[in-house]
Amino acid sequence: MQVEQFIIPIYPGVKLLVYSSGAPLYVDDYAADYGESRWQLLEGKEYEYELVDDSLNEPADWSLEGPASMVQKNPRHKNRGVITTGIYVGTAHFKAVKNGANEGVPVDFEVLSVKTSYRSDYRHMLSDITSYYTDLVMQQGSPVTQKFEVDYDTPQHTLYQKFAFVKSIVEDEQFNEAIHKIVSNPVRKWAKTTVERHIESVRKLSKSSLHQIVTRNDRVPYSGVIEGLESLPRYLTVSHKTDSIDTPENQFVKYVLTSFYGFCSSLGTKKNATPQLRMEIDAVCNILAGYMNGLFFKDVSNPSQLNLGSPVLQRKEGYREILQAWLIFDLAAKLTWNGGDDVYEAGKKNVAVLYEYWLFFKLMECVSEVFNVPAVEKQCLISNDADGINLEIRQGHTKMIHGSTMAGNRRLNISLYYNRTFSHTDDIYSSGSWTMNMRPDYTLSIWPGEMTEADAEREDAIVHIHFDAKYRLNKIIIEDKEVDLEARDKELQDEKENREIDIYKRGDLLKMHAYKDAIRRTGGAYVLYPGTEKKIRKGFHEIIPGLGAFCIAPGHEDEQVPALKRFLREIVAHFMDRTSQREKVAVAEHEIYSTPPDPFYEMFPEPYGNPVFADAVTVLVGCFKSEEHLQWIMEHKKYNIRCGGEREGAVELDDAYINVKYLLLYDLQDLSVKRIMKMTKQHPVVVSDSMLANMNYPDPTPGQLYMMYDVSEEAVEPELIGRPWYIEPFVKEMNGAPQTVTYTNLFCKT
Fold it and tell me: Closest Cα to residue 676, out of 581, 743, 594, 749?
């Protein structure tokens, strides 16, 4: 129920008042069923409070203490202040303290998520993680049929962690459905019992009945047709078959419920169990008691032994789910998950962090299927020590699994990382960030199967694809649509305000851009969020590079995860294309970045319409032998060089001579005379001596082939006219033979 204010009794005459100030306040009398405080706030809001003394009709000499990030006291009035919930979700513990006293009165507030589904999401995800966890343990071959033992004197947060696993089992809808299926359609057996019946009601005589007829007392006279029989017993003991539900399988189900109840209630009696823990325990115990007090289990006895190999337990619907739940429960008492402290320590329900953990398992499931990740690779996620079996997934601690797949005729290796850090480094041959340290939630790295990961990094043959979990997103903006200026400004202002409570839209995509731009060899970056639609923006014309978002909501993953799998398979298909734009760009970048920079500050035409750079421009340095030769060149706007053959000055046809951009023409007799000309066609043509003769070329060599360029002095850019050209080091002792030189080298006197 929404209210205008809280009035919370603290001490006789002293009350804590909390005002809505436009932010919603709720009082929930059923909150205990969820293990929550009845005084409920909303995340990302501010609330004013004050402590008042009704008996004195004045401000109370009390103050409110709580998490530093949530309580802002009024500097002039200690009894007043502001509660800021921020991104906290769960039970927040405060206490009202009389000024000068050491002890205070506990006051708990429940901070609700802005997502109305967070309660069911929390249970669903925790249950899934528990299942993944136990599956990993069972795959490892750890014993699962041992009776569990719990150290009840362990720290409070550890007790809560163990309880949280059990709670997730009991509150799971699948568990409830399993119990109802068993009750409505139980396994039955025929039980043989004996009853006393009047002899007249016995219709069929067995050997035992005939014996009783002869031997039993309490007889009545008989005058029938059987010779020698003078009397009959008044009653006979006969066997009777009944339909019974007291089967070993139903006994096992009762044992499971009893074990769950005993475990939870025992935790609640321990000295280090907090009021918050006891309240949540009561809620779970009430559920279990409801099952056990039903009429069905009153007719079921306690088991003398557990037969876990029963085909009914392993196969029949309802029973197999209870068996799985018990195996999980049996393990839960031994399991430790340090990452759980980030999720539910001190009563908080950090659904956003839990979502990040949960998504890792979902992503691992997808990657394992697409890239053939062997089960043994996943064993790195658990470890065994003296404290039990540990789940090694925690924020800030990197974990990875490896796999490989055959994509057509190309083998690909992959690594899936959780919380991998890409540190800033100047070493271009190693992984890292160009700028600042980056840590995506998940990173999928793909490289050729013939290389190690380190070699692939060094050769720029690896591609990183990053994913970030964003639980608080409901929708994400991929593209800006045509909107009026007022609507646009409002949207941007709303986004700015939402950043304060970690509810981003466009900002989340900007972070993906940061991953793409900063982390070397990144091909794509994507948001994973519990929304309703998939959004992808491709870079260039290919699946990667790319940017976008995939919706994966707890409870809806069966419908949504296939889209992510299809995307991963599209990536595999992309890597089969050995001429992809991404691969060409990677090769070019590797070549560029692996060459140390050599500054060049001389004038050079701007690359408009001719996207080349000075150090990539090749100049043909050639001579003219006479004025007649020069006149022919200028008149025909052509220049030729000998190609092939053994004649002095002939060159071999190769890229260097085919792709030249300029002609630097010099006088063979006077090196100080130079003219710069530009090639007007992309490539030269090969002509014969007879063709040159028809063009009145002076003295073409018989039987010689020539490479002919189209040149123009008028086409030369103004920046190159009148420049000094240092050709002496290149033409010395060459006797006029043409050669190719990079533009930058023509300015180096050495």
Answer: 743
